[in-house]
Structure of Carbon-nitrogen hydrolase:
Amino acid sequence: MKKEKLIVGVVQQSNIDSVNDNCKLLERNIRDCADKGAELVVLQELHNSLYFCQHETVDYFDLAETIPGPSTEFYGAIAKELGIVLVTSLFEKRAPGLYHNTAVVFEKDGSLAGKYRKMHIPDDPGFYEKFYFTPGDMGFEPIVTSVGKLGVLVCWDQWYPEGARLMALKGAEVLIYPTAIGWDINDTSDEQERQLGAWTISQRAHAVSNGLPVIVANRTGHESDPTGNSDGIKFWGNSFIAGPQGEILASAPSNEHCNIIQEIDLKRSEDVRRIWPFLRDRRIDAYGNIVKRYID
């Protein structure tokens, strides 16, 4: 029988330069979400470590691991013990010299339900991800779990409507974005507000245009630039859960550790799509040029 209600937990935390300590804190937060009834728990992007992409050095490739590997054993065991579906975000070593930014989903029995390799890879000051990650090659495929079909994407993917749409067209029942995004400390407060607003609006728009709930887990806290060339990144938190009309159901503050718990009504997607039949009215006969880089 298809699930109609789902209690979701989102973990928002700041990290330190100790993978072991970060994982211990993550485990406590996951357990807290489960204790509060969460059946699905979502973690932030690259949650085991500091966000290492602020600069380029080959030493950070040592953080990567195979899938399956130590982290999948660790998080799989937690998912099994607590009986939850768990969405994680790992630095995957696929082969020598070949690495991905990969979301891994665990089923309630601790098994690997599936994974998604981040498709859109940024290369901006403080976010030098192209040095570390090969773009994903698994496409936009929902991951089938006991709590529904999960359209899992990762961070920079959240700015692209095409990924969300393809997940929706393939039957995703919820869109999920593990994230690591923040401010340049030297930006003005007005600019910071504009960036945060654009980020929130973009993902709420995915909810509206696809008639699906959206779950976003971002990190928080300041992480310094190890090179000293910049003042680092102040991750802006604001993790949230939105309903299929883009309505905010639950949200976290910008600068605090926070686990948010929210029940979402999966049946509402059907109700919303009946009054806003965007999928029905798509002009698929006229969209051929969408696959071009630019239309002259």
About this structure: Residues 189-210 form the longest helix (22 residues).
